[in-house]
Design brief:
- The chain is built from seven helices and two strands; from the N terminus they run E-H-H-H-H-H-H-E-H.
- By secondary structure, the chain is mainly alpha-helical.
- The longest helix is centred in the last third of the chain and has 35 residues, at about 145-180.
């Protein structure tokens, strides 16, 4: 019998990023679909928060903890195919560590890249968007009217693509939790994941709190410069 081992996989910064992003993106989608003046003020503020989080995540993806780094989950298409073939195999835990994903799985890694890309598209195009009546992004003065209309259209298009990707993400989470019995939600809350005993040599992920604070402060200041300084 394979005994489980509780190991810290997700550092605190990654977990705070994930759930903060969930809250802010949900707020952006709700307020964007509502369309009221008060809602749009909140929509823009939430969008700035999303942009700050994304800038942080891009930096954290290179110098953060092991399983948060892009190199740990962006793999070759062959690895993705191997992973898909292994789904539902009860002996998956017997695979080598290189094939048994401890953090994001190979398919999920590409979904994360797509999610970051779409969210960046939303955040950046929103800076130049306008409804031609009351609401306009803080950097709209840097582009022509025609360019603003194009970017506004891309903002609306990427929001639809984003909602589709979120739906696929939630479906994938349900499949893992219910069908594959692979608990992936709770570890993103506690940081700890139950691993087979064969991974006894896997050490707990280091949190690097000071580095995370410095990076998020840098990201937040960057957004402040973009929104409040370039606005003038």
């Amino acid at each position: 019998m394979v005994k489980p081992k509780m190991t810290v996989i997700w550092d605190l910064a990654t977990r705070l990023f994930h759930w903060s992003l969930v809250i802010l993106v949900s707020t952006c989608l709700y307020t964007g679909l509502s369309g009221g003046l008060d809602e749009m003020d909140l929509h823009m503020v939430s969008g700035y928060g999303v942009l700050a989080l994304l800038i942080f995540r891009l930096m954290w993806g290179f110098i953060g903890s092991k399983h948060a780094r892009f190199l740990s989950f962006i793999v070759s298409p062959h690895r993705v195919w191997q992973y898909l073939r292994s789904l539902g195999n009860p002996s998956r835990h017997k695979q080598p560590e290189a094939e048994y994903p401890l953090g994001h799985n190979p398919l999920g890694g590409y979904a994360i890249v797509a999610m970051i890309f779409l969210l960046l598209s939303q955040a950046v195009t929103g800076l130049f968007a306008s409804d031609d009546i009351f609401i306009e992004g803080p950097l709209i003065h840097l582009v022509s009217y025609e360019q603003s209309r194009t970017l506004t259209g891309l903002h609306h298009l990427s929001s639809k693509l984003l909602m589709g990707l979120i739906a696929l993400h939630l479906l994938a989470v349900a499949v893992h939790e219910i069908l594959l019995k692979d608990r992936i939600v709770w570890p993103m809350i506690t940081g700890r994941k139950q691993l087979p005993e064969k991974f006894a040599t896997v050490t707990d992920t280091q949190h690097k709190p000071l580095m995370a604070i410095v990076l998020f402060t840098t990201a937040s200041l960057s957004v402040y410069v973009i929104v409040d300084v370039l606005w003038w």
